[in-house]
Amino acid sequence: MRCSRSIEALLTALAVIALAGCTLQPPKPWEKGDLARASMRFDADPLETKLTQHIYQSKEGAGGGGTVGGGGCGCN
Q: For the chain, what are the domain ranges?
């Protein structure tokens, strides 16, 4: 009996936290400049990333798969 109440309270708290993330507003036009800064990028140096991808593709003999879009095998 006591255990079910604590589990119910935990599930309720998790549901509230999960739904709280849905209330976020998209960035306003004047805030998009901050998100476009070079420090907000995943790759700090795009030229170095391109070179690393080129070396990897040359060694592996396959291209693609470096992003979320696909696996390089044609199956997206």
A: 34-58
